């Protein structure tokens, strides 16, 4: 954060102010918050200790580290990718450019899953593994399988499970293509942004998150078509599906699962917007016939 006038700029306050100014200029929405987070990261401090433990002056190495972090954020890279982790539900998850950044609204799905009775769970398109690992951490007796079409994402998910001490299986699959067996619960936060909506996303999402995790390159509903079509064949009798949806997709996705034979509810997130489809499939017709 060298100042053009060559002033003595190594002080903590001057460095922080310069970082806020740079991020503000770059159009970052909450520049003061992000500057503090990255300052804390540069100093290896928890952000809650920044006001207490920060040194009066930064060493040249700390200044260089901060400058690099601020430059990345000014390019609009998401904070989670810069610091490599994101808090979700009760844990911190390692996040990379190969994985969707876990979002708070997805906790609605976790909450809904924990109201149901299940001892096996399949997470389609697991990404960081945030949903699956959060669920299995709450139900240590249960078993779970996470799939992804991206090997790089699977590596991140496996690492997260190991680091958090959660036992889960992971395998490469294209929705149900590559999945064998039946599960009491199927969960997914699939790519649901229509290709036509991609241009309107913030640069953080559009330029840095993996497009294959965001959009189906179509109308935003194709993953739900695949999941609805294959669900009954991969559920135990009376099994359920929980999928995250875009807030305007409630009706369309509810219809897809109703047409597949399920009874369906639409659940809101904490902002009151449609966010999760809960679909219950009846007893396996082969077994009850
Ligand atoms: N909720 C994400 C967003 O709006 C999209 C995630 C997804 O497509 N599953 O950026």
UniProtKB/TrEMBL annotation:
<dbReference type="InterPro" id="IPR040758">
    <property type="entry name" value="PrmC_N"/>
</dbReference>
<dbReference type="GO" id="GO:0032259">
    <property type="term" value="P:methylation"/>
</dbReference>
<dbReference type="InterPro" id="IPR019874">
    <property type="entry name" value="RF_methyltr_PrmC"/>
</dbReference>
<dbReference type="InterPro" id="IPR029063">
    <property type="entry name" value="SAM-dependent_MTases_sf"/>
</dbReference>
<feature type="binding site">
    <location>
        <position position="189"/>
    </location>
    <ligand>
        <name>S-adenosyl-L-methionine</name>
    </ligand>
</feature>
<dbReference type="InterPro" id="IPR002052">
    <property type="entry name" value="DNA_methylase_N6_adenine_CS"/>
</dbReference>
<keyword id="KW-0808">Transferase</keyword>
<dbReference type="GO" id="GO:0102559">
    <property type="term" value="F:peptide chain release factor N(5)-glutamine methyltransferase activity"/>
</dbReference>
<feature type="binding site">
    <location>
        <begin position="189"/>
        <end position="192"/>
    </location>
    <ligand>
        <name>substrate</name>
    </ligand>
</feature>
<dbReference type="Pfam" id="PF17827">
    <property type="entry name" value="PrmC_N"/>
</dbReference>
<dbReference type="InterPro" id="IPR050320">
    <property type="entry name" value="N5-glutamine_MTase"/>
</dbReference>
<dbReference type="InterPro" id="IPR007848">
    <property type="entry name" value="Small_mtfrase_dom"/>
</dbReference>
<protein>
    <recommendedName>
        <fullName>Release factor glutamine methyltransferase</fullName>
        <ecNumber>2.1.1.297</ecNumber>
    </recommendedName>
</protein>
<comment type="function">
    <text>Methylates the class 1 translation termination release factors RF1/PrfA and RF2/PrfB on the glutamine residue of the universally conserved GGQ motif.</text>
</comment>
<keyword id="KW-0949">S-adenosyl-L-methionine</keyword>
<feature type="binding site">
    <location>
        <begin position="125"/>
        <end position="129"/>
    </location>
    <ligand>
        <name>S-adenosyl-L-methionine</name>
    </ligand>
</feature>
<dbReference type="InterPro" id="IPR004556">
    <property type="entry name" value="HemK-like"/>
</dbReference>
<feature type="binding site">
    <location>
        <position position="148"/>
    </location>
    <ligand>
        <name>S-adenosyl-L-methionine</name>
    </ligand>
</feature>
<dbReference type="Pfam" id="PF05175">
    <property type="entry name" value="MTS"/>
</dbReference>
<comment type="similarity">
    <text>Belongs to the protein N5-glutamine methyltransferase family. PrmC subfamily.</text>
</comment>
<keyword id="KW-0489">Methyltransferase</keyword>
<feature type="domain" description="Release factor glutamine methyltransferase N-terminal">
    <location>
        <begin position="16"/>
        <end position="84"/>
    </location>
</feature>
<feature type="domain" description="Methyltransferase small">
    <location>
        <begin position="108"/>
        <end position="194"/>
    </location>
</feature>
<dbReference type="GO" id="GO:0003676">
    <property type="term" value="F:nucleic acid binding"/>
</dbReference>
<feature type="binding site">
    <location>
        <position position="175"/>
    </location>
    <ligand>
        <name>S-adenosyl-L-methionine</name>
    </ligand>
</feature>
């Amino acid at each position: 954060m060298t100042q053009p006038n060559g002033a003595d700029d190594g002080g903590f306050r001057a460095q922080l102010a310069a970082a806020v100014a740079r991020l503000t200029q770059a159009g970052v929405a909450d520049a003061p918050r992000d500057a503090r987070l990255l300052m804390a990261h540069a100093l290896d401090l928890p952000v809650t200790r920044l006001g207490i433990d920060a040194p009066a002056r930064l060493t040249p190495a700390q200044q260089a580290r901060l400058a690099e972090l601020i430059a990345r954020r000014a390019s609009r890279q998401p904070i989670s990718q810069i610091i490599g982790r994101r808090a979700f539900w009760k844990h911190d998850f390692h996040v990379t450019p190969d994985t969707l950044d876990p979002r708070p609204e997805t906790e609605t799905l976790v909450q809904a899953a924990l109201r149901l009775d299940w001892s096996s769970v399949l997470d389609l398109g697991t990404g960081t593994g945030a949903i699956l690992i959060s669920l299995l951490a709450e139900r240590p007796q249960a078993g779970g399988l996470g799939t992804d079409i991206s090997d790089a994402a699977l590596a991140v998910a496996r690492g997260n499970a190991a680091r958090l001490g959660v036992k889960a299986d992971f395998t490469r699959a294209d929705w149900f293509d590559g999945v064998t067996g039946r599960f009491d619960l199927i969960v997914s936060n699939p790519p649901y942004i229509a290709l036509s909506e991609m241009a309107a996303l913030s640069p953080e999402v559009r330029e840095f998150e993996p497009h294959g995790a965001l959009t189906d390159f179509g109308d935003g509903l194709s993953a739900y078509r695949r999941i609805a079509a294959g669900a009954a064949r991969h559920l135990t009798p009376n099994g359920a599906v929980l999928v995250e949806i875009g807030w305007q997709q409630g009706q369309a996705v509810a219809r897809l699962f109703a047409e597949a034979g399920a009874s369906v509810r639409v659940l809101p997130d904490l902002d009151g917007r449609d966010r999760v489809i809960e679909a219950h499939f009846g007893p396996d017709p082969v077994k009850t016939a």
